[in-house]
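ESCALATION

Customer reports they have been waiting on this structure for their group meeting. Please prioritize. Original submission:
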Amino acid sequence: MNIRKAKREDVISIVRLLADDILVKQREDYRIPLPHAYYQAFEKINTDPNQELMVVENKQNMVIGTLQLSLIPYLTYQGGLRAQIEAVRIAKEHRGQGLGKELFVWAIQRARERGAHVLQLTTDKKRPEAVRFYESLGFKASHEGMKLHF
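Update from on-call: job pushed to the front of the queue and completed.
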């Protein structure tokens, strides 16, 4: 397994991973050619020093996982830095092999290296197995998350 920064040519594989999920299938538009909006988003992420879009490659250099680590500077905690994990996916056929844990070990270490004092994530309440996985990594359900979709 290799964890590396995503490249433009990885966007198709990343969107395929994101779209291959029962809870988000309706909001993603995975087709070939991929809509240009995904490439525009990639460029914004790729040029932002507070964003790290990562991929997991197998031994055949195929993208089989992804994660986005965002660093959020803010005034509380005396000008602290908060890290947030989003869009975590491991291809279905590669789950249960410890790849997700390795990816999170990388993300936790990277957040520390970047100076974050906390690493947070949200998960859908319809994913109890994800909650158990995150708890096994030391995450605590310390707050109630809320969203306002536009």
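Sent to customer with the following note: The longest helix spans residues 99-113.
Escalation resolved.
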